[in-house]
């Protein structure tokens, strides 16, 4: 399950970057909201999966509250999941 979590973390991080740096400019600068619709939905599903996996792995991996909070916080910060993979996993 940990490998699946790491893969989900990678996809979640990439989807956040695509949403912030590609889809949002397409919507707000060039007036094309379609990318935000699809990338936003994918990112939302990946975010939910990330949080569920993190909570499930908290007990399995014996993460303390601080580590779990940092892992969860990493999902809302651009490049956060990449940092978490290198430093916290």
From TrEMBL:
Report the membrane topology from the UniProt record.
Multi-pass membrane protein
Organism ancestry: Bacteria, Pseudomonadati, Bacteroidota, Flavobacteriia, Flavobacteriales
Write out the entry's keywords from A to Z.
Answer: Cell membrane, Membrane, Transmembrane, Transmembrane helix
* Residues in the signal sequence: none
Give every DUF3817 domain span: 3-88
* InterPro entries cross-referenced by the UniProt entry: DUF3817_TM
The protein's name: DUF3817 domain-containing protein
- Organism, by scientific name, is Flavobacterium aurantiibacter
Q: Which residues cross the membrane?
A: 7-26, 38-57
């Amino acid at each position: 399950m940990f490998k699946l979590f790491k893969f989900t973390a990678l996809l979640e991080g990439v989807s956040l970057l695509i949403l912030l740096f590609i889809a949002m400019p397409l919507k707000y600068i060039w007036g094309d909201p379609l990318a935000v619709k699809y990338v936003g939905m994918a990112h939302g599903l990946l975010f939910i999966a990330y949080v569920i996996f993190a909570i499930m792995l908290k007990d399995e991996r014996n993460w303390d509250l601080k580590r779990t909070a940092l892992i969860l916080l990493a999902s809302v910060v651009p490049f956060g999941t990449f940092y978490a993979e290198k430093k916290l996993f």
